[in-house]
Design goal:
The longest helix is centred in the middle third of the chain and has 82 residues. Helix 3 runs parallel beside helix 11. The strands form 4 sheets. Strands 1, 3, 4, 5, 7, 8 and 10 form a 7-stranded mixed sheet that branches. The protein has about 625 residues and is α+β, with helices and mostly antiparallel strands.
């Protein structure tokens, strides 16, 4: 049984090998009368004319140098190529077939037919030829070929182009019409989908302008130009100068598409912020593409585009890896899009350009069209989803703002309540102050009945003290009313010093402290009442805590300012203690006066200086005393 299986297997291999041998030995493509379409590329052969000067007769003698066309790969230059293929009419009637050739652009293209040693030129195009010079006015190059009954015809194609022939097919008239109809229908669907996406994104950009939408619109626009040129529509309907513009158009359209593709990816993935090194690689590709465009009038761009393509594909694959690894925004959608780009444009298209057989019969130029439409649709989905995320974020933000407004309203209501309570306390305080001021006024009236001449200085001191106390009460009541205004005037510092000396000399003498005033003729602009309150507190504190020593008050000239100093030679004070007593209701534990304070003196000084724009400075050394300085602008 095993021997029988082995024999059958050998017979099968023999039959397959014999069929392959017959197919390989077949030197022409038979044209049976019932068939209407033939693919001539499998039987075609090619030959590079390095001299670029060989004639048809010379090439015909070099048949042994022709190689199978399927083995031909993309060339980085524009070689002069000869392609030959043979056909034989097996019918009994003369037939006219249509040879359809797909090639992006060739500055020179000639087609010859040879039968029984007789040559005939079917097509002669060069860089000066117009579109109307074609035998059939179609966007694809189509040449009618008449084959007599039983005739074997050898076709020679002679051209120079970086882009190779992608299809070489023979159609009957009906089959050609069907083929063109299907092809135009497919292209219409492609361009219709692209224009639909372009219109939707353009309307979205009018509503909400963004750089992402602008990059995507330009990407679609140049992609449409590229696909339209690839399909032959630009060559058919929009004529350019063949020699100067059109040869570079496909490569330039591809480069501009690549530029805006990478700009869109870099901006929407925020590569500049998320992955700066990848962003720099994107910029390198973009500037390389722009540099190729800049030098395209001097150097043909097609070979440089082919050289740049692997780097762009590698960078796209690296972007997929990094986007998924670092979980960049919309990473999965972008990865699908980049796979479409790399798969259809960089891999499948290039493989097909190198004439690698596919399991299905797919035209080379169909692959980038499908890939580009999928890319644009994926980009549209990305933009729509991104817009959805933005709208959701805005909705969340509005809800947060609304909640913040509600909280602010509640806080404002609470603030108003607290202000009302505070105002009520101030009014109560003002009422008590008013009641306290009444006996002071009565005391002042009683003092006036004393004989002033007997003790003039004591009388003046008591009168000034009572006036000062009444001013304090008045200030408190006016502040509660909300109409308090300071009286600003030119103040003679000697007048202020005399008042302070007269008021605090008895208190200092009782504490065994020497109190001195340095005379001054200077004047300042300010509130006499505020300055009195500041130095009242400073001198009172100095007498309380300075010990048995000296207290001096005087003024020093400073640049654009006057510095009034209160100095003592007491035990000094540390910065920590100074910070403590600057807070309300804080005071030192030990004082030498019988009258205890309330811990508001230094706090009042600090607040009054801040309110008036004065500068308070304190310097102290342990065991040597303190210096309190009030700096007033002149």
């Amino acid at each position: 049984m095993r021997a029988l299986k082995k024999k059958l297997y050998l017979i099968y291999l023999f039959l397959v090998a014999s069929q392959l041998h017959l197919a390989y030995a077949q030197q022409y493509t038979p044209l049976p009368p019932e068939a209407d379409h033939f693919d001539l590329l499998p039987s075609a052969e090619y030959f590079y004319d390095d001299s670029k000067q060989l004639t048809l007769d010379q090439v015909a003698e070099l048949n042994h140098m022709f190689l199978p066309f399927r083995e031909k790969t993309l060339a980085p230059w524009s070689p002069t190529t000869w392609v030959k293929t043979s056909i034989k009419n097996q019918g009994q009637e003369h037939l006219t077939w249509y040879l359809q050739i797909d090639i992006l652009w060739a500055p020179r293209f000639n087609v010859f037919s040879v039968s029984d040693g007789q040559a005939k030129q079917l097509l002669a195009l060069d860089s000066d030829s117009a579109f109307t010079d074609r035998p059939i006015q179609e966007r694809m190059l189509i040449i009618p070929v008449t084959v007599k009954a039983g005739e074997q015809l050898t076709l020679y194609l002679h051209y120079s182009s970086t882009f190779d022939i992608q299809s070489l097919e023979l159609f009957s008239h009906k089959a050609l019409i069907r083929y063109l109809t299907r092809n135009n229908l497919f292209n219409g669907m492609v361009f219709g989908a692209l224009l639909c996406c372009f219109s939707i994104i353009a309307m979205q950009m009018l509503i909400r302008p963004s750089r992402s939408s602008a990059y995507l619109l330009l990407f679609i626009l140049f992609g449409i130009v590229w696909l339209a040129d690839m399909s032959g529509y630009i060559y058919q309907h929009i004529w350019f100068s063949y020699e100067h513009i059109y040869p570079q158009l496909p490569a330039l359209a591809i480069l501009m598409t690549l530029v805006f593709y990478f700009l869109f990816i870099a901006h929407t993935l925020r590569l500049k912020r998320n992955t700066p090194y990848l962003y720099r690689a994107y910029l390198a590709i973009i500037f390389s593409a722009l540099a190729i465009i800049a030098i395209s009038p001097v150097i043909p761009p097609a070979p440089l585009v082919l050289a740049l393509s692997p780097f762009a594909a590698t960078l796209s694959l690296l972007t997929i890896y990094i986007a998924l690894k670092y979980r960049l925004p919309l990473a999965k959608l972008y990865s699908c899009n980049l796979l479409f780009h790399v798969g259809f444009v960089n891999i499948l298209f290039v493989i097909k350009l190198n004439h690698v057989d596919f399991p299905l019969h797919i035209h080379s130029f169909t692959i980038p069209k499908i890939g580009f439409v999928l890319e644009v649709l994926m980009f549209a989905i990305i933009l729509a989803y991104r817009e959805h995320l933005i709208n959701r974020q805005q909705k969340t933000s509005l809800q947060q703002q609304l909640e913040s407004s509600r909280q602010l309203a509640r806080m404002k209501e609470e603030k108003n309540r607290l202000l009302a309570e505070s105002q009520q306390r101030i009014l109560d305080y003002a009422s008590h102050t008013h009641d306290m001021a009444q006996p002071i006024a009565t005391l002042k009236m009683a003092i006036k009945s004393i004989n002033k001449q007997e003790n003039e200085k004591l009388f003046e001191h008591i009168d000034n003290t009572i006036n000062y106390t009444q001013n304090l009460f008045t200030s408190i009541i006016n502040t509660a009313k909300g109409d308090y205004q300071e009286i600003i005037s030119h103040i003679g510092l000697q007048q202020l010093f005399d008042y302070l000396y007269l008021r605090y000399q008895p208190l200092a003498a009782g504490a065994q402290v020497t109190f001195k005033v340095v005379p001054s003729s200077l004047k300042v602009v300010g509130s006499y009442y505020i300055l009195s309150r500041i130095f009242d507190n400073l001198i009172t504190n100095a007498i309380r805590y300075a010990g048995k020593g000296k207290i001096v008050i005087g003024v020093r000239r400073r640049k654009k300012a006057l510095e009034i100093q209160v100095l003592d030679n007491g035990p000094g004070i540390s910065a920590v203690v100074l910070e403590k007593i600057s807070q309300p209701f804080e005071q030192l534990n030990k004082t030498r006066l019988k009258q205890e304070g309330f811990g508001l003196g230094m706090y009042s000084v600090k607040e009054l200086c801040t309110k008036e724009g004065y500068q308070l400075e304190v310097s102290s050394k342990r065991g040597k005393g303190c210096c309190f300085s009030i700096i007033l602008p002149r």
